[in-house]
Amino acid sequence: MMYRNIRDFLAFLESQRELKRIQREIDMHLEVTEICQRTLRKNGPALLFEKPKDHTIPVLGNLFGTTKRVMAAIGCKSTEELQGIGRMLAFLKEPGWPRELSEVFEKLPAFQRLLYVNPKVKQTAPCQENIITAKEIDLDWLPIQTCWPGDAGPLITWGLVITRGPYKESPAGTAFPCRGGDRRRSGHFAGSGYAHPRHPFRIPVCRVAARCAQ
Hints:
Blueprint: H1 6-15, E1 19-26, H2 31-41, E2 46-52, E3 59-61, H3 67-74, H4 79-93, H5 101-113, E4 130-132, E5 155-163, E6 172-180, E7 185-188, E8 205-207, E9 210-212
Parallel strand pairs: 1-2
Antiparallel strand pairs: 2-3, 4-9, 5-6, 6-7, 7-8
């Protein structure tokens, strides 16, 4: 099944009783994480917190908390099909060239998938319906959770970080946990393995350009 957007997917999950709407006010400080963790341990549904305390934007949690929902998201009908997609993605990440003629025919379907790897550039998209820039950016506007007691602050658990290396012109997009810095900047964690071999390692602090579709 194909979904046009996240709303379509949530409507499908709700029809399958795989989504629970929480209409009570829930605190983003520790409380959301506790509820999500408890639900995850019981293989429970995805959770849509409709009234996060002090915020107007709903919060979605545990979306891919079970294999069943992961399969529904990408249209798999069996775990074997899901595992096959996993093997395909692993191959596309580091494709190995065929060493003999028999491998050419064996790997041909996988190499054909490489034709669809490059992103498509579009001039307009739903995420551009509301564009927030410069002084209008305010991370405090977002319902960001503080996950654990003693945390340094709120944590964006799946932030998309766009980076460009010192020797590459094309940018790269990676998902990193991002810790709030101030209203317009956020830093992300990276281990020593991310240090460039010819440059001292620095903790990056990312300026935020917010684009959202509501």
